[in-house]
Amino acid sequence: METQEQIKEMVRQKYSEIALQDKETNESSCCGSGCCTTEVYNIMSDDYSSLEGYSPDADLGLGCGLPTQFARIKKGDTVIDLGSGAGNDAFIARSETGETGKVIGIDFTEAMIIKARINAEKLNFNNVEFREGDIEKIPVPDNTADVIVSNCVLNLVPNKDAVFKEIYRVLKPGGHFSISDIVLVGTLPAKIREAAEMYAGCVAGAIQKQAYLGLININGFKNIQIQKEKLIIIPDDILINYLSPGEIRDLRNSDTGIFSITVFAEKAKVSCCEPGCCSN
Length: 280
Description:
- The protein has helices at residues 4-19, 23-27, 67-70, 88-97, 110-123, 160-170, 190-193, 196-200, 209-218, 236-239, 245-253; strands spanning 78-82, 102-107, 128-132, 145-151, 171-185, 207-208, 222-232, 257-266.
- By secondary structure, it is α/β, with parallel strands linked by helices.
- It has one domain (4-266): 3-Layer(aba) Sandwich (Rossmann fold).
- Strands 1, 2, 3, 4, 5, 6, 7 and 8 form an eight-stranded mixed β-sheet that branches.
- Helix 1 packs parallel to helix 5.
- It is globular, with a radius of gyration of 19 Å.
- Mean pLDDT is 85; it is low at 28-42.
């Protein structure tokens, strides 16, 4: 099995390739991973095209939900988009926070940052910026964001606990996040878990649903809610690259499920009885 750094480098290289592909190519593959399918439809993501702020040039078809639709963004908010890609969710968030707010997109793939900045320049947005950085070490100060969004990204990160710790750090007290991600119920076959393409395709890096929610809880977040959940069906003509027909049949007949969930949680407001925030 690859080390965490090897996994991250593999993801970086694959998403650098995806940045140069069009949406149709990405949608006809397993979350853009390049594992071909004859059933040309987007396996993971929902349709953004009716949302205000939607920019076709920024939509690479790589998401697995609509986190901005559930994120309760208000005018003037500072929003951070983790794994911002070509800017799709950042531009939707910008339509919610308005000209008085600010949106910061974070991505560790240089090609995606370049693409997103070109898209922002074409849209003439002066309050949307894109920073190259690792979301395990988010390049913003403490207590920066009112809202954090992310779309089908944390499943690609080996150290998910580190990401949730960083989300807590950069959220303002009382701030919240809305994150769409892939989670599991049951155990994927080893051949899927060990496949690099399926990792880049948002599946092999997913963890158990309860473990995912547990990470949110142990990192201090409150009011944890699943805002949306849907079952993801990986077509047989993708699975056949990794499993025999019998193994595919066994998987279909098992209790294992791959789900897209959109999760909301809050960072607690500062209490006046906490150390250092009131006089003795």
